[in-house]
Amino acid sequence: MDYLQIVEQIKKKRSFLCVGLDTDITKIPQFLLDTEDPVFEFNKQIVDATSPYVIAYKPNIAFYEADGVSGWKTLEKTINYINLLHPDIFIIADAKRGDIGNTSKMYARAFFDKFNCDAVTVAPYMGKDSVVPFLEFKNHWVILLALTSNDSAPDFQFIENKQNDKYLFEEVLLKSKPWGTKDNMMYVVGATQAKKLKKIREYIPEHFLLIPGVGAQGGNLQDVARYGMNEHCGLIVNSARSIIYAGQAHDFAKVAGVKAREMQQEMQKLLQQKGIV
Amino acid sequence: MDYLQIVEQIKKKRSFLCVGLDTDITKIPQFLLDTEDPVFEFNKQIVDATSPYVIAYKPNIAFYEADGVSGWKTLEKTINYINLLHPDIFIIADAKRGDIGNTSKMYARAFFDKFNCDAVTVAPYMGKDSVVPFLEFKNHWVILLALTSNDSAPDFQFIENKQNDKYLFEEVLLKSKPWGTKDNMMYVVGATQAKKLKKIREYIPEHFLLIPGVGAQGGNLQDVARYGMNEHCGLIVNSARSIIYAGQAHDFAKVAGVKAREMQQEMQKLLQQKGIV
Predict the structure, then answer these.
(1) What is the full DSSP assignment across chain A?
(2) How many CB atoms within 10 Å of residue B43?
(3) Interface probe, candidates A80, A117, A155, chain B, greatest B C-beta count within 10 A
(4) Is the confidence at residue A216, as pLDDT, over 70?
(5) How many domains does chain A have?
(6) Looking at residue A52, what is its pLDDT?
(7) Of A68, A82, A235, A100, which Cα lies nearest the Cα of B69?
(8) Are the Cβ atoms of A126 and B114 closer than 8 angstroms?
(9) What is the pTM of this model?
(10) Taking CB atoms and an 8 Å limit, are A161 and B162 in contact across chains?
């Protein structure tokens, strides 16, 4: 998918919601444990119930990898299911990969060629040659970590560069910007850091931002839109736990759908206020 | 394996060599392509030929992940083979993972519980809570990226902190040191940066360092030992391409064994000079 196709989806669905498929077998409804592949069954029902309200799904790769080979099979089935039924929904492999060039190329092949994801999250620590191999896949995206939503994000991301007084996360934005374009790069900016979005938008006015941390991690959607939305929306807001685990009974998927719809409606208002829809 | 067991292996084998299993199906001898699982067959023969000279193997996870579910099966078979035949050899999952706490815990489960690796490489960008979950697995190791061997390493790793004039990679060493101990943490320091090792040893005199980049990437073993070796050796030097792809004929494994032995003998001299063996 390209930039305009994502914008098109946002307008069509009046939503910029991404649902995180952080599916933990210990947190899904008990009755699913009798099915052949409980995590896939859970994902399938969540997708069926939430797809009208979302523009993206973001499987968190660790949750599948933790189950070894069979977890990877479940991931593959989940992605294939989404791609088959909802080819217009953007799929983000939240993998936080990144390595020396020839190795990053292998990770890009894994997520783009083998698993048919549209985007992959990448960690910036190793610099340009660890990121560029992902950018060489046409119509696929790198989502580079800039400012994350976790408590320890400041440990290194807030180190100030002696040369120019910029924080490390600002250096990541500024230095990486010319590696790609707004058509193949996005950035992760935690919703818990919403006020930083204003400054970030000065550096990268056009790029899409993937915003995790709305919901269970405490971020606020209004603030994110106020400081981060641009004329094409430019936001993909992820919510995982507060949607997918909202219900624990047989109607868990329906409850998740209701939660997703609530967020979509809040998003619709924000898009209307900005004149995007 | 604990610190002393690794030191014991180094003394016994008179080696601190790690062989990187960066196995790329397009680079292995052609005749192996007729076997059921060419990458596993290659790894098996490489392990059989090199195990007398190594204390560690380091599968590069990207090379397996690139082949999807079947790649993960090959990885699992390879690790099981090493653990079964060579329980004293340390296995490093070169995965460069790292995410928010509950997600890092999933990655730790993947590599420590499911795939039975001894250690996993972790990227530091997200700070303490992305690293600590790996440290909670007894007798397992985090190998944190500090100074990497790739050309773009300086992009961010050499940013100087305004507060104390330290480079980012030095901040990573200093800030992360109290998160663990010399018994559950090591650091990645590229061999291409050998002269930086002297300073690094002032910060972390005791910790083991995993040194990639000797061989194909241009690092020099003498320099690494001169600046980085401590009284317990404290070094695990990785070499991948220059050993595993040294031969391309039917005797490729034998050739790899000869190369590994050459490195072991060079290492033995360095250990003797230091009075360790």
Answers:
(1) --HHHHHHHHHHHT--EEEEE---TTTS-GGGGGSSSHHHHHHHHHHHHHGGG-SEEEEBHHHHHTTHHHHHHHHHHHHHHHHHH-TTSEEEEEEEE--SHHHHHHHHIIIIIIS--SEEEE--TT-HHHHHHHHTSTT-EEEEEEE-SSTTTHHHHTPBBTTT--BHHHHHHHHHGGGS-TTTEEEEE-GGGGGGHHHHHHH-SSSEEEE--BSTT-B-HHHHHHHH-BTTB-EEEEE-HHHHTS--STTHHHHHHHHHHHHHHHHHHHHHHTT--
(2) 26
(3) A155
(4) no
(5) 1
(6) 98
(7) A68
(8) no
(9) 0.97
(10) yes
Full residue range of the structural domain in which residue B65 is found: 3-273
pLDDT (tens digit, 9 = 90+) per residue, A7-43? 999 999 999 999 999 999 999 999 999 999 999 999 9
B155 interaction partners in chain A (CB closer than 8 Å): 124, 126-128, 175
Instruction: List residues bridging with B92 in a β-sheet.
Output: B119
B chain contacts of residue A172, beta-carbon cutoff 8 Å: 156
Q: Which of B37, B63, B65, B149 to mutate: most A Cβ within 10 Å?
A: B65
CATH number reported for the structural domain that contains residue A46 in this entry: 3.20.20.70
* B96 is an active site residue: yes
CB nearest A152 (choices: B109, B113, B129): B129
Is the distance from CB of B101 to CB of B133 less than 8 angstroms?
Answer: yes
